[in-house]
Amino acid sequence: MGGLTCVSAIKLPARAGRFKLSRDYTTTYPISFLSHHRIPFEVFLIQQLLIMALPPAEKKEPMEAQIKSVDMTEDMQQEAIALAIEATEKFRVEKDIAQYIKKEFDSRKGATWHCVVGRNFGSFVTHETKHFIYFYLGHCAILLFKTQ
Predict the structure, then answer these.
(1) Among 29, 31, 99, 107, which has the highest number of CB atoms less than 10 A from its own CB?
(2) Bridge partners, residue 66, by sequence
(3) What is the pTM of this model?
(4) Which is nearest to 21 in space by CA: 12, 31, 33, 32?
(5) Helix, strand or coil for residue 35?
(6) Do residues 101 and 132 lie in contact, with contact meaning Cβ atoms separated by under 8 Å?
(7) Helices marked H in the chain — which ranges?
(8) How far is CA 67 from CA 77, 109, 133, 142, 143, in A?
(9) Are 129 and 117 in contact (CB under 8 A)?
(10) Is 117 helix (H, G, I), strand (E, B) or coil?
(11) How far is CA 15 from the centre of its chain?
(12) SS3 of 71, please?
């Protein structure tokens, strides 16, 4: 299956043998996981074994941050963006991305940091001077700020 990651294999009953699905007729179906991301997978039928597999991971283009509003040192901005990229590579759920960024900044820069990650939200916050950044990473907005 050349580089595919098997996610499920089901042994079919003998009568299922009348259905012929070879590699030439491999089908791709979109499925949704809890994270609401649609992920294509391929289905193979090989000797009555139904196999569902994810395609190999594609090389992603480097994400570029678009800073919308900032009150933060240049070094801290770069650290926030690098950490956000790392978080989006590790996690798919926005809540998990926000939690990762917040906890990392709490441990690196001291408490108390707040992080909001999403695609459609409004905000109005009070923050410590030089401790605020709002930027986009792809289609995802990230708001990170510190309070006392």
Answers:
(1) 99
(2) 136
(3) 0.61
(4) 12
(5) coil
(6) no
(7) 74-90, 94-109
(8) 9, 20, 8, 9, 10
(9) no
(10) strand
(11) 40
(12) strand
Query: Amino acid identity, residue 20?
Result: K
Provide the Cα torsion 89, 122, 147, 93; round to 10°. -20
28: three-class secondary structure by DSSP = strand
Tens digit of pLDDT for each residue in 23-55?
Answer: 444 444 444 444 444 555 555 555 555 555 555
pLDDT digits (tens, 9 = 90+) for 101-126: 999 999 999 999 999 999 999 999 99
Nearest 5°: phi and psi at 83?
-65, -40
pLDDT value, residue 97: 97
Instruction: Say what the pLDDT of residue 76 is.
Output: 98
CATH fold for the domain made of 65-146: Protein Inhibitor Of Neuronal Nitric Oxide Synthase (3.30.740)
Pull the structure tokens for residue 24. Answer: 């030439």
